[in-house]
Amino acid sequence: MQNNPQNEERLSPWWKNGVFLVLIAGFSVLIWLAVKSYQDAPPIPDQIRNEQGDILFTGDDIRSGQEIFLRQGLMNNGTVWGHGAYLGPDFSTSYLYHQTNDAYELLAKQKYQKSWSDLNEEQKEGIRENVAKDSRVNRYDPSTGVLTLSAAEAYSYEQQQAVWRKFFSEPHQNFGLPEKYIDDAEELRLLTAFFFWTSWASVTNRPGKEFSYTNNFPYAPAVNNVPTHGTLLWSALSLIALLGGTGLALFVFGRFDFLGWQQKDHLHPQLLPGEASTGQKAVLKYFVIAALLFLVQATIGGGLAHYRAEPGDFYGFDLSSLLPSNILRTWHLQLAIFWVATSFVAGGLFLAGAVNRNEPKKQALGIHVLFWALVAIVVGSLGGEWLGIKRLLGSLWFWFGHQGWEYLELGRAWQVLLAVGLVIWLVLIARCILPVRKDPERGQIASLFLYAAIAIPLFYLPAMFFGSRSHFTVVDMWRFWIIHLWVEGFFELFATTMVALMFFLLGMVSKKTALRVVYMDAILYLGAGIIGTGHHWYWTGQGHITMALSAVFSALEVVPLTLLTLDAWDFISLSRNDCDECGKKVPIPHRWTFYFLMAVGFWNFLGAGVFGFLINLPVVSYFEVGTLLTPNHGHAAMMGVFGMLAVALMVFAFRESSTDAEWKKLEKLVGLSFFGLNIGLVLMVVMNLFPGGVFQLYDVLANGYWHARSPEFLTQGLMRTIEWLRMPGDVVFLGLGCAPLALAGVLTYVNSWRRSSAE
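Given the sequence above, the corresponding structure tokens read:
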């Protein structure tokens, strides 16, 4: 009895049910952890007094200091609790270090009438024990809202205002902030109050616990800030979860050999180059702008790297007075998000037009309007960030200037406009997809594409859930709903859906294969990734239960990334098949798109999988967070995965919009870009980021977290040499990778415009 072809194309309902179960279970836990973050966050006292009862500062002062920290873009200079930029210090750790030394000096004078340096080792050891014990005492009274400082803590608060004045006055010490960046006495007082609070939360024991609000981060053995028992336990258990999850996944893949990209016996592309619709031609300029933004973003990254190699000097020019390091890092991060997101947005519009060849009326007009709205958001937000840190926007800094939170620096008004733009984008996609949903051949995959698109504007909403005076712990929780869940979760799922739809429209995989891959990736990505979001929250003022769940599920995130390496070979084999239903052999015309997708598989494994797992174990993260191993993972994963995906979409659109004759010339540029981007990224990792991170991690273990983040360490000979070794990778990446890609984009657009004019 022969099988019914329609039954062969039918997919088990358990794939869809599995995705629903994963979403319900994952978000139930994640929402519970979000509520816990409000409950477990370190308290902000109403008043901070000395032992005599005098008010030194208030909780309102701490919040005002946080606003100064944000307004001046200091999270793009240094870090708080390990999160932020890696040019300057970790401000909470630096405050704790100076407070410890101030306590030594004060007790030496009180007890022995000598300076600390004049004491013998026995006297010093006695003072060290007193300071370590005293630092961990929690003197906060929740019934009155009053925190009483010890004499040493009160003394250090007064002393450190001068310390921070000096820090903000010297560009070579703060790695590229303008001279006398913050010089007002009142602002320094408020900023010091904020730094004190972050330091106090990191060393003072939680009520009833033997560890601090930040789970004893940072590593500072002088005050008994060392890894907790839970940090060690959950690191070990997460390894067990990884091994068990990997074994189970390999068993399933071995048992069911139909998983993955299964090619059709007879291929027949439904998309042919040079046949772009009016709407798709309108989308082309998005990709061109994305390629140009990529070039600018990478160039800024090179300038930013120079601040680490030669702080305070740019080949004899004082760059910090015009483009300080914190604004360059802001633009580097924002442009990365902008160009990748623009490419994904454009890819969605381009493929929606391919699904429905009967283009809705005025679709091209809507695409043009959205384009100029996105241009306004990019230009307005980048300019506003510069004006904000220059104090030229007054009280409007949060709305139109530099909002201050890393990765979410654009002002709130620009965020709102971006959210509106994403909704308009969704409407444009829906106009193409909704009429196709009942089509027996394309309806199911088109519906999945639409559902994945809906998640993009929906899960950007947490970016609006906080303000400049919100609790730092709470903001960091919502911040990583965007950075991890929105970008690494739903954007990656949307990208997978686009790739599946692309292969289906090219006639290279069956409908059943495309649907199965999307469902499988949704289960694997989101099953571990939703709860795994919490691995960013180990040290930000949340409880041990967050670490326990996040460590285990974060380890499981490596499983799908490992399996995705299988895609690399699938992409190569798919690209080598010919169309044998056209009367003659016609090669699939997207070889370089497949090569970039192959690169995604490689960097998914290395950058997101290996380097991500390296730093996600709690016991490793405890010592590593804020070292160069973090941007080592960030560059290899963000550029290697999302960047290569975005470029693959660009190249796909460039090829679809070009005739065979035009593509023969453009192909050389695209091929050069492929090798330039990948070789340049490898050189960055191998010659700079990874060795620098390992050296810095060793210094954390040997001398404490403060020392590894200090100018003394970062400007020493070996670290300076490692920073200069970044240059070869940057030159290859920029000159042979970004520049040819941008040129290919411009030429594609010019060719398309000429053909349209001739028609």
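The radius of gyration is 27 Å. Try to locate this feature in the token string yourself.
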